[in-house]
Design a protein that fits this description.
Layout: E1 3-7, E2 10-13, E3 18-25, E4 33-39, E5 46-51, E6 58-60, E7 68-73, E8 78-83, E9 92-99, E10 111-112, E11 116-121
Parallel strand pairs: 2-11
Antiparallel strand pairs: 1-3, 3-8, 4-5, 4-9, 5-6, 7-8, 9-10, 9-11
Length: 122
């Protein structure tokens, strides 16, 4: 059974940094494309970042480009989301996701974690 577990969320002041981690069980990240999404209160879930299985190509939403960095450590079977220069509008539940197909990396995924809360205070 595949389980994705996020960690690293918390409360941080605007301008601060957090690093989220995602360590799946029952799944080897080197075989999958990995992504991060977020959902703010009253809003739909939105794409944040993705890293491809092959060549580790990275993709970002315009709202986080230049501030967030997605990376993978295959040896640790862990995906990271480094978040810098955080803004109050980054406040959301952040979800880790995995998919085998490289198509539509900003949308549909096969597996999802339960999410971790990130709160950015002004």
């Amino acid at each position: 059974q595949v389980q994705l577990v996020e960690s690293g969320g918390g409360v941080v002041q605007a301008g601060g940094s957090l690093r989220l981690s995602c360590t799946p069980s029952g799944l080897t990240i080197s075989d999958y494309n990995m992504g991060w999404f977020r959902q703010a209160p009253g809003k739909e879930r939105e794409f944040v970042a993705a890293i491809s299985r092959i060549a580790s190509r990275t993709y970002y939403s315009d709202s986080v480009k230049g501030r967030f960095t997605i990376s993978r450590d295959n040896a640790k079977n862990t995906v990271y989301l480094q978040m810098n220069s955080l803004k109050p509008e980054d406040t959301a539940v952040y979800y880790c996701a995995a998919k085998y197909s490289v198509a539509e990396l900003t949308r549909t995924y096969d597996y999802w974690g339960p999410g971790t809360q990130v709160t950015v205070s002004s």
